[in-house]
Amino acid sequence: MLGFKHGLLAVTATSVGQAVANAKKGECAMSQVQEFLSVLVKNVPADDMPERIRQRWIENPKDLQKVLREALMPPQKPDSLRVDTARFDPVEFISKGWKLLADEQDTRSCSLTEVDFSEVDFLHCLTKEDLRSQKPWITGEEKLARLKKDSGRIRYGATVFMGLLLDYQEHQKKGDVENSVLGQLYRDKGVVYMDFFGDVLESPYGNRSVLYLYRYGDGVWRWFYGWLGVAWFETNVSAVSPQVS
User: Fold this and answer.
1) How confident is the model at residue 30 (pLDDT cuts 50, 70, 90)?
2) pLDDT interval class at 41 (50, 70, 90)
3) Are 200 and 209 in contact (CB under 8 A)?
4) Domain ranges of the chain
């Protein structure tokens, strides 16, 4: 059994070779690495392990190293669906003359510092009668009116939009957009579009719009704004909270 533990120590030392290297660089204390190896060897259940199993690990150190690595350094789970909200300035973000209409703002959205998109609902606001009609759509203004009537839900606005976009752009830089909140929503729930009726924008020409995010055919999420005077369909879903009252 002593030989097995010595063999385990050698394999484990290889597994944490990077940690040792980091220790030499001053990133962690060498004494901590030594203490870790000692604790690991002491806690291996070698006494209860059948001899044939011990021998198998002795003869297959690479397999043992793989098991140790997976057990001690499991792969990181995908990022959560929580996103920090972020400041939004319509002039900086779009152009001169754009503004947010204070009297159309859902102030509850403005006060949020983060949103968990695992709990977000996506509503199109069309009734069964709308969907059965020859014109299965409503205007954006009508959709806004219906969302306002559903006062138990928070209409997420520009700061939530901005937080999602920044999260996506940060993951783009790292080359792992699939783990962005938008990437996970598409992968796990099939979401390809969402708009944000918690804030209404007014253009320099007086047109009223809301921001939206859309996953185009090339797989890239992009932003734009939709005028409230045109048709909004069943696929144009709004990001809102679950019922809060």
Assistant:
1) low
2) confident
3) yes
4) 2-72, 82-240
The structure tokens listed for 93 are: 């973000």
The distance from CA 244 to its chain's CA centroid, rounded to whole angstroms, is 22
- How far is residue 181's CA from residue 168's CA, in Å, rounded to a whole number? 7
Please state, in angstroms and rounded to a whole number, the distance separating the CA atoms of residues 186 and 192: 6
* Residue 147 CB coordination number (10 Å): 18
Q: How far is CA 198 from CA 23, 78, 121, 151, 245, in A?
A: 50, 28, 14, 12, 17
The angle subtended at Cα 241 by Cα 238 and Cα 245, nearest 5°, is 130
What does the mean pLDDT of the chain come to? Answer: 86
Angle 162-241-229 from CA coordinates, rounded to 5° = 65
pTM here? Answer: 0.69
CB 154 within 8 A of CB 240: yes
pLDDT for the residue 122: 98
Residue 155 and residue 198 in contact, taking contact as beta carbons nearer than 8 Å: yes
Listed in order, strand segments (DSSP E) in 17-110 are 82-84, 99-100
Confidence tier at 150 by pLDDT (50, 70, 90)? very high
Complete DSSP assignment for 58-104: HH-HHHHHHHHHHHHSPPPPPP-SEEE-----HHHHT-TT-EE-GGG
Phi, psi of 205 (to 5 degrees): -100, 5
**Amino acid code (one letter) for 100:** L
| Residue 117 near residue 212, CB atoms below 8 Å | no
Residues 6+ apart with CB under 8 A from 154: 106, 108, 109, 112, 198, 240, 241, 244
